[in-house]
Write a structure and sequence with these properties.
It is built from seven helices and two strands; from the N terminus they run ααααααββα.
């Protein structure tokens, strides 16, 4: 099974058939897809300027999509290194019980679904790397009441998500499943009430 870097080389290789290059980009999303596979694909296609169903996209546009994905992956991998170093130090200092950020991080190891978007057509418009930087910054500060990605105030609790956890606060502006550790208890309660109001 090819890894992310080897798939990325195929996307860039002009000697490869265009169908293989497109397929390799799709396979990269099995290794790293911050919004989930379908929403990340939709995001990359819209930002690079080709259709999700386009079987013969411009190779320059394919590489542009890969560039964005690689930049975001570098941001996330750097965070994971820092996270691992912090946990190692905490364990050394006797803090064995992980906190809520650690519980959330365990579910997103490797970067899949970090900013899960249950609706593949609704996701942030900003570059993936910028979205991840905002999310990481939120994880490293005190919890707040808004979406860490778009600063949206409209959070609603959604059930039956195609993700783990299967329920949680979703930003109705940018579509991400907001990690619970970045929200105050009051913001989480407000999101639950918003869900109840919607379903009433």
């Amino acid at each position: 099974m090819a890894g992310f870097r080897s798939l990325a080389r195929q996307v860039r290789d002009p000697r490869c058939d265009l169908a293989l290059r497109r397929y390799s980009l799709r396979k990269c999303l099995e290794r790293f897809a911050p919004y989930g596979h379908r929403a990340t694909w939709d995001h990359l296609c819209s930002r690079a300027g080709f259709g999700p169903e386009d079987r013969s996209p411009d190779p320059v546009r394919l590489v542009a999509a890969l560039d964005e994905l690689e930049e975001a992956r570098a941001v996330w991998l750097a965070y994971e290194v820092e996270f691992a170093e912090r946990r190692k130090k905490e364990k050394h200092d006797g803090l064995r019980r992980p906190g809520s950020v650690d519980d959330w991080h365990r579910l997103t190891w490797g970067g899949f679904g970090v900013a899960w978007c249950d609706d593949p057509a609704v996701h942030p418009r900003e570059p993936l790397a910028e979205v991840l930087r905002r999310l990481i910054a939120a994880l490293e500060r005190e919890p707040g009441s808004n979406c860490p990605v778009c600063d949206g105030e409209r959070l609603a609790w959604k059930y039956d998500l195609d993700h783990e956890p299967s329920a949680g606060p979703v930003c109705t502006d940018c579509g991400i499943l907001v990690p619970r550790p970045v929200l105050t208890p009051e913001a989480l309660a407000d999101a639950r009430r918003a869900r109840l109001l919607v379903s009433a």
